[in-house]
């Protein structure tokens, strides 16, 4: 026993001497070490000013090509041929598309759950899991013959943002911080060639496991990606169904018990076909409690021409216009198109046409370009060329950033409907306000943080109002977010020619990547903007203090110190196996083709062709 202890002590002291010798000589050999590194990498290497200067803003990278590939693959789940996309709620294609998204979520290692109506949640647990989470997301359902970007960018873009955070690791930042914390040495010590090359064997045996443990990138608050059910009103005539129910709309939950689609299929039968609503008509479990989310962000194409026309890549949404929808029905006596003379007719079709023109008049008379109105549906019964319409159904959409002005327009439309029915001798059998939602304003803190991020990334931006409403509108008005979800923001991307809801809908991969990086990634990294400030460190790490942190730049990452044995292990692994390990792994070839700067070096840059399986290094 004594001899064994003596041998271990001798080995320990020998290794300690080797390590100290390397450290003490590294300062004198800095030039030669740098030359060796430059020969190895094929690129000039400049020393960093300090490892405390965060390079995260520049080194976080978005896989634009991979994201575009996912968008293209998802578009294949459609009931109409390409380039159009038709994906109706609870249809077979919708179910397959959901499965595709869940596969991506699972591959990222996120915990997945689904509620009673099919809202899907993918969660990346933060290191302060008791805090309310930061949420983002959108929808993937698509109206008939539409495009492949509406909503999809917000879902797949959010998953790519998390993927970017998970795969991001600044290797030299880790080693430098470990050394400084453990031995209080100066930053230039990282130029030890031994330590530099030992990075390349990171991923082997116990060293790999240990560094993975202490260097994992974790959010402070949990991050949750939501795939909302039925943002489009295509099947059941209810827009943003999933987010409305998350926001706690009990009247909507009750109305769904008697809601049917155009084929007289009930909502709950359709949901059961897709594997949801297993408790029948009870969907109260969908409602979220107050404060469930700290903030909500949504990335979306603009669906209008402003950003593309002005050449601006980022639209920072300051408010969402207040939408309202109305159903109107006129009933007349009908009759033969030739036998009933004009003075004696009670034409429900002409009543609908006259009301359509009245909608336009009242909107224009508001005096504001922000007031809009659309008669999107007009149906005539029996719908024969030689028959006077006996029934007409209209569905009207009107929006404004001023709620009172919009409500005034709605009242004028109602008055006109009454007068038209009386004048034409038809019955106004229905005038129903389906929804009359208030506008939502984004939180100033998030707006300012996004503007700052755009400036740091040299991306021009525009403060704008979202004329189209999205699920973020209902997350904003809900009780499920802290402070009634005032910490809301939506971000717009340019859409080619402003096209949306048609096959020509398009957003460039560069614009999508800019949106992911400029809004979601840096929204996740802000302190007060989303509260998702990040740290590195696994089970042994201590949380980073947040006082006085910048809104965009993440706090300095204080790593749990490596023990002396850990540092010796770095040296031993290098001395015994670096050459063999490099050749065996194929990393040497990859490293030689890549820049190898101490700052900004990422696993993604080095391992450009890593496998997509469990053996890959995914942080």
From TrEMBL:
GO biological process, one term: purine nucleobase metabolic process
Gene3D superfamilies, alphabetized: 3.30.70.360, Zn peptidases
CDD domains: M20_bAS
Pfam families, A to Z: Peptidase_M20
Keywords associated with the record: Hydrolase, Manganese, Metal-binding, Purine metabolism, Signal
Superkingdom, taxonomy of origin: Eukaryota
Signal sequence interval, chain numbering: 1-27
Recorded coiled-coil stretches: none
InterPro entries assigned: Amidase_Cbmase, Bact_exopeptidase_dim_dom, Peptidase_M20
GO MF term set: hydrolase activity, acting on carbon-nitrogen (but not peptide) bonds, in linear amidines; metal ion binding
Cofactor: Mn(2+)
Complex formation: Homodimer.
Name the record gives this protein: Ureidoglycolate hydrolase
